[in-house]
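Z., the sequence and structure:
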Amino acid sequence: MKLRVLGCSGGIGGRHLHTTSMLVDHDILIDAGTGVGDLSVAELVLIDHVFITHSHLDHIACLPFILDTVGDMRSKPLTMYATQATQEIIRTHIFNWAIWPDFSEIPDAENPYLRFHTIRLGENVCLNGRNITALPAMHTVPAVGYHLDSGAASLVFTGDTTANDEFWNEVNKIDNLRYLIIETAFSNSEKQLAIISRHLCPSMLGEELQKLRHNPEIYITHLKPGQIEVTMREIEEGIGQYKPRMLQNDQVFEF
């Protein structure tokens, strides 16, 4: 499997700050934030599957535009994978004809541009030998992370989450874990905001990583613009023994 980071910022503000999205091989998206906007039309047409962690706008912003741009160029529906709760939020608040057309009914219900596939925690979706499993996440809305397994190695993406023992219980079962992409949205000075919004800050990240029983490469995502340097400095000073690195746009992982 080959994963390319399209966006990994907690906000926007320049060509290098795009919100969360990752392209797996040529046909799978993990989230559909503003980073998708850098893909060409030819690349968008090839996307058959979109796995959504949760319904917040920074993780779904480009999903409506993908459908609008290339829906009529495709021979089959784009499949959006999400929990039932997340699907209901997106159906109610995005594809509702008021904010955006309901592409699950366009051009008609029998031949739509979009179809929904419900996933459950622990459920494995196998796509041509590529296994993707929903992991527990704890956020202000229903949320999951994802475990991507090629058979040879695994990558785990937390999505947006706060402290969560259930997540680590599942991660520690992954014997071939090579990469861990974990969010840290706020600096320590905004720990209370991190708690309220169910994100992590460096001190909380350190507490969470103590629960990890493997030794993967660790990458930090979802850093807030304006706090990137201070947050990464606090991570280095507080938990440098884990050798965490900042996730970068266009970074590629092969596993």
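Residues 236 and 244 are 7 Å apart (CA to CA). Residues 228-239 form the longest helix (12 residues).

Let me know what you think.
H.
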